[in-house]
Amino acid sequence: MSLDRDLLTRSFDLVLERAPNLTERFYEILFERYPSLRPLFGGRVKPAQARMLREALAAVLAHLDDGAWLTETLGAMGARHVGYGVTDAMYAQVGDALIAAMAEAAGEDWSPEIEAAWIAAYGAVASLMQDGARRAVAA
Predict the structure, then answer these.
(1) What is the DSSP string of 58-122?
(2) According to CATH, what is the number of the domain 5-138?
(3) How far apart are CA 37 and CA 18, in angstroms?
(4) pLDDT tens for each residue of 102-126
């Protein structure tokens, strides 16, 4: 995966510094923009779920140079998400809400360069997860 690790890491650190509740805010935005996704979460998101998302994002950033880890880990995550009822279309909705939450947290420090880097990174993550989901469905 050829992504700007330094830019992604710096911007992630920035948004977490400014908004330690980034993933909680992500879910608020997700449900505001896409209320049809709320039932997938049993009506509300538990703090543990927001923490797991934050940890998953940090783990992906820590492994950007490890294609095998990314393929295996994200593929398995995508396979699990099939059981939750996640569809391909939902990945774009999640990406939209995640980028919005990050941009909101970064404020005036959010730039087109940072946004493009995160769109590329999220696209790569979503693609690996969707590949895992397709393999799980085909099995």
Answers:
(1) HHHHHTTT-HHHHHHHHHHHHHHHHHTT--HHHHHHHHHHHHHHHHHHHGGG--HHHHHHHHHHH
(2) 1.10.490.10
(3) 27
(4) 999 999 999 999 999 999 999 999 9
What radius of gyration do the chain's Cα atoms show?
15
CB count within 10 Å of CB 119 equals: 14
Cα–Cα–Cα angle for 49, 55, 19, rounded to 5 degrees: 85
The structure tokens listed for 99 are 């980028």
Residue 56 has pLDDT above 60, yes or no: yes
Write down the domain spans for the chain.
5-138
Q: At what angle do helices 47-62 and 5-18 cross, to 10 degrees?
A: 150
In the numeric block, which tokens belong to residue 68? Answer: 């095998």
